[in-house]
Design goal:
The chain is of the alpha+beta class. It has a domain of 47 residues. The protein has one helix and three strands, in the order αβββ. The chain has a three-stranded antiparallel β-sheet with strand order 1-3-2, with no helix packed on it. The radius of gyration is 17 Å and the shape is elongated. It comes from Brugia pahangi (Filarial nematode worm).
Length: 70
């Protein structure tokens, strides 16, 4: 079993890039690591959702998408 110090040393060696987690068009981040929009539905509480760059985004009605998406 690995102890906490070994785990920290291991994690420090892994390169991590920070990318701000933002949804387009004013959406709200509700989860990370999605494969498609269907995988976000369980987190959305009935709101329209998109999976964008593996980020689950929820959109509040009535103005959740620009006209070219409808």
């Amino acid at each position: 079993m690995i102890d906490l110090l070994q785990l920290i040393k291991l994690l420090v060696k892994v390169p991590v890039s920070y990318v701000p987690q933002q949804c387009p068009y004013g959406g709200e981040v509700i989860g990370l690591g999605c494969d498609n929009s269907k995988s976000c539905e369980c987190l959305a509480q009935g709101l329209p959702v998109l999976c964008v760059q593996r980020i689950c985004c929820a959109y509040r009605l009535p103005n959740y998408f620009p006209a070219h998406f409808t």
